[in-house]
Specification:
The protein has 3 helices and no strands. By secondary structure, the chain is mainly alpha-helical.
Length: 75
């Protein structure tokens, strides 16, 4: 699928340099980056779901500490 997006000049320039260094097209670079971002987001979501799913198997103190940390972390 083709799409048009706006990218800040500095990000575009850096992406162009990486694409040249990696010997890949701009499209391939953006696809790789988006796939990585989406996979990381999925992993984070799964981790958060495990922490917040209180199934009774986690020590309550560890669960409470994990929740405090996650509640104050900026993603």
């Amino acid at each position: 699928m083709k799409t048009a997006i706006s990218i800040p000049d500095d990000v575009f320039d850096a992406a162009e340099r990486v694409a040249r260094e990696e010997n890949v097209s701009r499209s391939e670079l953006y696809v790789k980056a988006l796939r990585k971002l989406l996979a990381e987001r999925e992993s984070i979501t799964e981790s958060l779901n495990r922490v917040y799913a209180d199934d009774g198997s986690t020590d309550p103190a560890v669960l409470a500490a994990s929740r405090r940390i996650l509640d104050t972390t900026e993603w």
